Amino acid sequence: PYDVLIVGGGPAGAAAAIYAARKGIRTGVVSERFGGQVLDTLAIENFVSVQETEGPKFATALEQHVKSYEVDIMNVQLASALVPGKLIEIKLANGGSLKSKTVVLATGARWREINVPGEREYRNHGVAYCPHCDGPLFKGKRVAVIGGGNSGVEAAIDLAGLVSHVTLIEFGDELRADAVLQRKLHSLKNVTVITSAQTTEITGDSKKVNGLVYKDRKTGAVHTVELEGVFVQIGLVPNTEWLKGTIALSRHGEIEVDAKGQTSIPGVFAAGDVTTVPFKQIVIAVGEGAKASLSAFDHLIRSSVS
Ligand code: FAD
């Protein structure tokens, strides 16, 4: 069996693998797609000490760093179940099974897509999901935020300080964000809020975004907003479908962890976007991955399993 088996090969999983391998213990990483969300990212400008890089380049660097240690990388493998026990079992979708004394879950999350024409075509060319990451790219430009929940309204407030104008588009008849956020939003002069609006298309000039089309759900009238960027803020979905009923999850489906990354199952730790730890960022995922691995090591040296 492995000493530490990591599920997920994004920044959190990579950091966990490096920290485990450096202890000289048997380490494995099973991942559906090594690199994770970073593979879908264009510019990364907030990974401390790296002024500027590109997602795929960063993913390659992660992989090379992990490969410089003795780590079994099992890529393009989907975990389908976790069976707790003295040895923890990870079942794979291909019928295989892996056993380990400790497990670090780092399966990350995915942004919920709005699924309208233009969204996929202009991803990274005006369509964005993360205001902390991509907000500065739209400095002085006009953007829309789709979604009037807490994350959408927070994004609009954040972006209003950077861009020239923000249009917040909410599908329902009213915003769903906390009252204090709504008050802040309404106090901003460069924000327009449009409710009862169904986004039907993100338009572009074949290179980058130039507008957003929405239908007024009350009158049926179709409107176009001219802009340079669209932030889709309709939810971040943790990749925990396969863990439901096995491990304690928050009401948003995130794995509940304590300050050490310990989950509800002894010997099982978790890190990164898949957990309840707030703010989904690479630098945070990397730190949490290191922490989960050190906690797994701590568990190993205290437990009787040999
Ligand atoms: P992920 O990167 O999501 O990795 C999860 C890993 O788990 C992947 O390898 C995946 O294949 C694997 N996996 C999932 N389910 C399974 C399963 N069942 N079995 C096996 N493997 C599984 N953050 C920044 O700090 N700066 C930025 O500029 C930035 N830009 C971004 C731009 C975009 C377009 C996106 C989408 C995100 C961006 N982020 C940015 C956020 C950042 O990418 C995430 O916070 C970070 O990748 C989280 O790392 P993670 O390891 O927790 O999860």
From TrEMBL:
It comes from Collimonas rhizosphaerae. Its cofactor is FAD. Keywords: Disulfide bond, FAD, Flavoprotein, NAD, Oxidoreductase, Redox-active center. Belongs to the class-II pyridine nucleotide-disulfide oxidoreductase family. Homodimer. The keyword NAD applies. Transmembrane segments: none annotated. This is Alkyl hydroperoxide reductase subunit F. Residues 2-289 form the FAD/NAD(P)-binding domain. The gene is ahpF. The chain holds residues 212 to 517 of 531 of the full protein.
